[in-house]
Amino acid sequence: MHITTNNEWFEATVSAINIESPTVKTLTFTAPYPIHNKAGQHFELRLTAENGYQAARLYSAVRAGSGEKTLQLTIMDTLNGEVSPYVTESLRIGDKVEIRGPFGNFFVWTPDEKRPVLLIGGGSGVVPMHAIFSAHQDSASTAKMHLLYSSRTFDDILYKDEFLDNKDVTITLTKDAPSDWQGKSGRINQAMVEEIVTEFPEKPLCYVCGMTKFVDAMTEALQANGITPDLIKTERFG
Amino acid sequence: MTVINKGFVGKGGDSHKRLPPGQTEVIQWPVLTYGPTPKIDTEDWTLIIDGAVNTPLTLNWEDFNKLAKTQLTTDIHCVTRWSRLGMVWDGVSLDDLIGLAGGLTPKAKFVIATTFEGYTTNLPVQDVLNNQALVATHAHNEPLSAEHGGPARLFVPHLYFWKSAKWIHRLTFVEHDQPGFWEVNGYHNYGDPWKEERYSDYAHYY
CATH 3.40.630.30: does it fit domain A10-103? Predict the structure, then answer.
C-alpha cells in the first residue's frame, strides 16, 4: 500500500481533449494513483517553464472521483490568464503537467445531503455544478435537485449532451439566443429565481458559482426569495 | 520529479522576487467569500474584545473611530495564488485594542476572530501583537466596501488573506486553539505564505 497526500504533486498525462465551446476545453488526465474527490472539490494544476518558473491555478473537477485513475478538468481560455491559455491552447495528448488535490471541503455535495438543492452557475461557474449534478444523478438520492445555468450564448453552453433537454436543468442565454431556442433568455433575476424556488417542497440548499458580480446578484435574488444566508454556499472567481 | 512544460513562460518577471512562492501579482482586487456579502450598517456595528483580557469591552462605530489609527504599507497574499503588492491600509492596531481592554491575561495564547455572519478564524496571539495586525477600515485611503469586508475587517497581512476575516465583530482571546471555518474545511491551520502553508494534509491510500 502506498500513502500520499492531497498536497503532493503528481505527474498527470493528457489522455483526451474535448472541445466544449469556442473558449472552453475539458481535458482528461491519467493519474498515477486512484483519485478520490467529492463533487465540488478542486485540484491545482502546475506548469513549469524551462527556466524553472512555476505557476499553478485551482480548477474544479468535472465530477466526483471514486477511485478512477483519471481526472477531468474543464478550463476556460481566459484573456490575460497565466496558466489557462497554455492549458487550453498548447497542451496536446500525451503531454504532462503536475496536479495535486483535492482541496476545499465546504462547496461540496455528497449523497448523504438529504435537503433539496438548487444549483446556480454562471459561465464556467457551471463546472462544479456539473460535478454535483452528476453525483446526484449517479446516487440513490431522491432529494430534488435543479440547475439554473446562465450562459452568454448557445455556443457557450458547456456539457450540452447532459444539460440540453433535461427537465432538471433550466438554461438562460444572456446575449444571443437562436431563433428556435426553447429555453429562457436574459439574465437571471429575482422573478426567474422565484419561479424555480416555488417548485421546491421546502427552501432549498443553494450553491452559487460564477464571477463575483454574478454571485452577488444571485445571492441577493435568493435572499429576496426568503432563502437565508445559512442555506447559501458560494464560490467566486474574477 | 519536475515536469518541464515546453513553451510555457508565464508571468515570472522581476516582481516575482518579492512574491512568496507560487503567487502571481494582480493589479485588480479579487473578491472571495464563502457565502452572500452581508451589508452591515455602521449604526449596528460593534466590536467585542473579550476572553483572556483584563477588562472585556464592546466598542460602537463612533467610539472605534475616535481611536488612533495605524497605517501599514504592505503586500497581501491570497491562498488562491494572487498577491497585491504595496497596499496601504489604515485601522486600529490590535496592540491598541488590547491596551484598551486592560491588556492580555497569561491565558491569552490564541485569538479567535468572529465575523457578523459567523465566520471564524484562529491565530496565535504573537501574530497579532507588535503592529502586525489591524482592525482595518481603509485600503488606499478609501473606506472598505462591503465586498472587501467593510465597514471593518481584521488585517493580518503576513498570513494568507483568509486569516484577515471580513466584517469583523469579535476578537476573543483564548488559552486553547480552536480551528476556524476554513481551517476545519481543508485549509492550513497557520497559513504562512512564505512556507506555502496553503492546505491541510490528508492521506490517500492506494
Answer: no
